[in-house]
Design a protein that fits this description.
CATH superfamily of the largest domain: Type I PLP-dependent aspartate aminotransferase-like (Major domain)
CATH topology of the largest domain: Aspartate Aminotransferase, domain 2
Order of helices and strands: EHHEHEHEEHEHEEEHHHHEHEEEH
Distance between the termini: 42 Å
Strand content: 5-15%
Shape: globular
Helix content: 25-40%
Oligomer: single chain
Strand order of the largest sheet: 2-9-8-7-6-3-4-5
Radius of gyration: 21 Å
Number of helices: 12
CATH architecture of the largest domain: 3-Layer(aba) Sandwich
Number of domains: 2
Length: 379
């Protein structure tokens, strides 16, 4: 007999504080806001959103999304450059399916988002890591790799990177876009954290380069609204969008997620998404400060750069085998993600990734205290 009936990916034992969970707090998911948007959608009594959707995505939704993005980015976004996806994971899978073949080479940051590596493995792609530092992808290191091999695309999380937390500088963004043209490779920019900025520092989205055929900007509502919506977008040159729109998948099944996009359209047109993002920023800014304070107090040996946005602290613990320590940490009822998971070549052994968004300040403080006790025993 089944005692546990799963409803989400998250299953944390009672009493456990798992600072490795990279998800929004259940308490911050906007249930009432989405309820109102759904009611407004159904009140129109127009069943069109229950039909197979337009291949590129519902036109009215893309217009509403373009308005939101234009306000957020500070430059005009053309709805015609937007393609609706089932989130960034789906967008990456589509890019792999339509722009690569098994055995092709792609570049990724070192470290990188570990579940993206799973998607690339599904397509049997050869992965080459490129060095990063506190300002993101190292351009000189990229040039060295380009002299040796030609990638189909480069996958980057340029803003508040997962797991590093760092942001690619504007100068490096410009140089990366230029290199993509000179060496004829695509940039798949995963910008899932772009709007979760807790500082005054501003950088351009890669959507600003969408007039180049080599740049695709990927966005999602997973972190700024709710993951279960499975709704996102990509912004790209019309030629890239044409390859996706004419795929057999869309010819057979229609556009992706027309039902959910109709509901989210109501929310966008009401201005509620900006309100939700402001609410999240206020909560996450406080939780980030709580984690930084706890790390400096409890783990003075830890090496890290405080992120200015996003979800994560990327922490180096000199002399610690993070994978072995992860198992020991279970005895102290605390969790984290070891750095080796974020390496494409099993490096980063003394790094850990900690998330500050899933728990409130009190639990963050207690979690770091438990981690300190665990490390005291391990060392």
């Amino acid at each position: 007999m089944m005692n546990y009936i799963p409803t989400s990916q998250i299953h944390i034992p009672e009493g456990m504080i798992d600072l490795g969970v990279g998800d929004p707090d259940f308490a911050l998911l906007p249930l009432d806001m989405l309820h109102r948007a759904a009611e407004a959608c159904f009140a129109k009594a127009d069943p069109a959103f229950l039909q197979y959707g337009a291949e590129q995505g519902d036109g009215y939704f893309r217009m509403a999304l373009a308005g939101f993005l234009s306000r957020g980015y500070g430059f005009s976004v053309d709805p015609g450059t937007l393609f609706v996806t089932n989130g960034i994971s789906n967008a990456l899978d589509l890019i792999c399916a339509h722009f690569t073949r098994p055995g092709d080479t792609i570049f990724v940051e070192e470290p990188t988002y570990f579940l993206a590596l799973r998607i690339f493995a599904d397509h049997d792609l050869r992965i080459v890591p490129v060095q990063t530092d506190e300002n993101g992808l190292v351009i000189e290191a990229l040039k060295e790799k380009l002299a040796e091999v030609h990638p189909k695309f480069l996958y980057t999380v340029p803003t508040f990177q997962n797991p590093g937390g760092y942001t690619l500088s504007q100068d490096r963004r410009d140089k990366l876009a230029q290199l993509s043209q000179e060496h004829d490779f695509m940039i798949a920019a995963d910008e899932v954290y772009h709007f979760l900025n807790y500082s005054d520092r501003q950088v351009k989205s890669f959507a600003a380069y969408a007039d180049l055929e080599t740049v695709i900007s990927l966005g999602s509502f997973s972190k700024i609204l709710a993951p279960a919506l499975r709704l996102g977008w990509l912004q790209a040159h019309p030629e890239a969008i044409k390859r996706l729109v004419t795929s057999g998948l869309l010819d057979s099944g229609g556009g992706l997620n027309p039902f959910t996009s109709a509901i989210v359209r109501e929310l966008l047109e009401a201005g509620d998404l900006e309100k939700n993002i402001a609410r999240l920023i206020a909560a996450y800014r406080s939780r980030l400060a709580a984690m930084e304070t706890a790390l400096r107090r409890e783990l003075p040996q830890a090496e890290f750069v405080t992120p200015e946005g996003g979800f994560f602290f990327w922490v180096r613990l000199p002399g610690v085998d993070a994978e072995q320590t992860q198992q020991k940490a279970l005895e102290y009822q605390v969790g984290f993600r070891p750095g080796v998971r974020f390496s494409s070549h099993t490096g980063m052994g003394d790094f850990i990734r900690l998330c500050f968004t899933f728990y409130d300040e009190e639990n963050i403080d207690e979690g770091i205290r438990r981690l300190r006790k665990c490390l005291e025993f391990s060392l």
